[in-house]
Design goal:
The protein is an alpha/beta fold and 556 residues long. The chain is 27% helix and 28% strand. The protein has helices at residues 2-6, 201-208, 215-229, 272-283, 322-342, 357-370, 405-413, 437-449, 492-516, 520-530, 538-554, and strands spanning 11-12, 22-26, 40-41, 48-53, 56-65, 74-80, 83-85, 88-90, 95-105, 122-128, 134-136, 140-149, 157-167, 170-184, 194-197, 235-239, 258-261, 267-270, 289-293, 301-306, 311-316, 348-353, 375-380, 392-396, 417-421, 454-457, 490-491. The strands form six sheets. It has an eight-stranded parallel sheet with strand order 15-26-25-24-23-22-19-16. It has a six-stranded antiparallel sheet with strand order 2-5-12-9-10-27. It has a five-stranded mixed sheet with strand order 4-14-13-6-11, with no helix packed on it. Helix 8 (437-449) packs parallel to helix 9 and helix 9 packs across helix 11 (538-554).
Length: 556
């Protein structure tokens, strides 16, 4: 996979000039540029983009500090200017980005625990920092990423903008354009794409060194969750028990519900943290689903507080056992009652992932008995025996062939969600730190091509011990555990994922419009364009497919 990134090359940066100097040119958003200025890179220069009103688009400027002369590191600062089209202006505040810094990555290894350095150490440009100024080391190369958010009220036309770079007292402007079309993309909250990236608030507490669930914790959480909401996130990740995934992440998930066995043997459940988390997430704009993990954790041992002994204890029980039904039955009854009082019952799901059919059947039986009407979600393999019971069903990319057009249509008519997910088992499309940028955009297009409702991934921000420097982890390919960085720093993967979701929305809008107008020719054109998205070609034609698809939509 690393070969795919670093050796698909045609041009040497050092050949850009006859004399040693700081060299700047427009590059491509499809490249993770190498950190060395004398490395070979593809000779692609793109300084224009096309957007709908309300869409955000990306560009990348390439900076190389070549050897020679003073052989010194160079400190650069940047400034994004406003974009103008006649008297119309897109403010400079609508342009965000920064220098793309490398993180340590490895290569595709599949799933399974291993030593962190077992598969080597490479650098991959991924983290879009907001460090300004930034030092580009001698013989170093950095991309400067720009994301332009076009206002929904922008007047159509071609807007001219610039990036100003300052180095050693000299300022130079690099111009680019954004052509704004007379089409409008709705606000992210209105997007139909069902995005479900699991959040880890405990990782935020650790990185920001704050007490979990304190005011400082929620203050630290807000930028991350606003960023997630701006991508159209639909689900709130909540935990009903301690360590639902055991030690899968560096920062284990705690329980948002306190289970207390009173001295008289009865049970009491404190939903205070759960309520605060859900209310906070809804304030951030994420409120379609509350997915609650997990009645079937990876380790069937459940922690509770024993009032009689003033200590925490564990009960070991499995789905199908009477003790399991008793343990969960009382909690589910109390939980359902609480949810109805809060007005959240209809949007709450008891959620499981990658569990067996027998375990699921046993858990569903308990849910139906003690919390009738409670919705269920699952990510994992396809079990036709329980499909009708799963309101939000997400199949692994290797299993989603079980979704037939008829099944998807039936589920959609019933208001059920059908999505797919990728994890450590799929090399592409995926969101590893070594993944080709275009693959991240392809993810949403693959959902579109398969007529699915969206995409799930298990980790939005389950960081490694040192995520800003080293994205490797002990069980999966590098970057598998997070797509954004501490302090709400973006990544190439993140920006391209959002770009793909926007194309999903644009296609849906154009198709619905064509069908409403009876425009059979346009419907055929759109279907033909969608037919170019083929998973079997992603290894060699990812960039070609996503760019052709995006350009095709913008011509319609």
């Amino acid at each position: 996979m690393m070969k795919r990134i670093f050796t698909m090359t045609l041009f040497v940066l050092a050949a850009m000039a006859a004399t040693p100097q700081l060299n700047v040119r427009w590059g491509s958003i499809d490249e993770r540029y190498p950190v060395d200025a004398d490395a070979e890179v593809a000779n692609v220069a793109v300084n224009s983009a096309v957007a709908w009103r309300g869409e955000r688009v990306n560009l990348q400027l390439l900076v190389a500090n070549l050897k020679g002369g003073s052989s010194a590191d160079k400190e650069l600062s940047y400034r994004f200017g406003e974009l103008k089209c006649g008297k119309s202006v897109i403010p400079a505040t609508n342009v965000i980005g920064g220098f793309v810094q490398p993180v340590i990555t490895d290569k595709f290894t599949g799933c399974g625990k291993h030593e962190v350095d077992a598969y080597g150490e490479n650098l991959s440009a991924d983290r879009i920092t907001n460090d300004n100024p930034t030092v580009v080391p001698v013989n170093g190369c950095r991309g400067l990423w720009l994301t332009v958010q076009v206002p929904q009220e922008a007047k159509p036309g071609t807007y001219k903008g610039y990036v100003e770079l300052a180095c050693e007292g000299k300022k130079t402007k690099y111009n680019y354009t954004v052509k704004v079309l007379a089409r409008t993309l709705p606000a992210p909250k209105e997007w139909s794409f069902h995005l479900d990236l699991w959040q880890n608030p405990y990782a935020v507490a650790r990185v920001h060194n704050v007490e979990p669930w304190s005011k400082e914790h929620f203050d630290a959480l807000r930028p991350y969750m606003l960023k997630l909401a701006a991508a159209g996130q639909k689900a709130i990740t909540a935990t009903l028990i301690d360590r639902p995934w055991d030690g899968q992440t560096y920062d284990p998930f705690g329980s948002m519900v306190t289970w207390v066995r009173k001295a008289d043997g009865t049970w009491w459940y404190d939903f205070t943290i759960f309520d605060r988390w859900v209310e906070f997430m809804m304030e951030c704009g994420i409120d379609k689903e509350i997915t609650c993990f997990s009645m079937i954790p990876w380790k069937l041992s459940f922690r509770y507080y024993d009032q009689a002994t003033h200590s925490h204890k564990y009960i070991n029980c499995a789905p199908g056992e009477e003790s399991y039904a008793q343990f969960w039955g009382g909690m589910l009854s109390a939980f359902a009652k609480h949810l109805k009082e809060k007005g959240w019952f209809e949007k709450t799901f008891i959620s499981m992932d990658e569990r067996s059919l027998q375990q699921m059947q046993a858990a569903i039986k308990v849910i139906k008995e003690y919390a009738p009407g409670m919705k269920i979600s699952m990510a994992g393999n396809y079990h036709p025996e329980i499909e009708s019971e799963i309101s939000d069903y997400c199949l692994d990319i290797f299993a989603y062939g079980a979704y037939t057009p008829q099944l998807i249509a039936e589920r959609r008519a019933q208001g059920k969600v059908s999505t797919y997910y990728t994890c450590c088992s799929a090399e592409y499309p995926n969101l590893f730190t070594f993944t080709a940028p275009s693959d991240a955009e392809f993810i949403a297009l693959e959902a579109l091509a398969k007529d699915l409702d969206g995409y799930l991934r298990w980790a939005y921000n389950s960081w490694t011990i040192d995520p800003e420097r080293d994205s490797r982890f002990t069980a999966w390919p590098a970057g598998d555990t997070y797509v954004v960085y501490p302090f709400s720093i973006s990544s190439i993967r993140w920006e391209r994922l959002v770009q793909g979701i926007q194309q999903f929305e644009k296609y849906k809008i154009l198709l619905a419009e064509a069908k409403a107008k009876g425009n059979a020719r346009r419907v055929k054109e759109l279907e033909k364009l969608l037919g170019t998205i083929k998973l079997e070609k992603i290894e060699t034609e990812s960039e070609k497919m996503v760019n052709a698809f995006r350009n095709g939509l913008n011509r319609m």
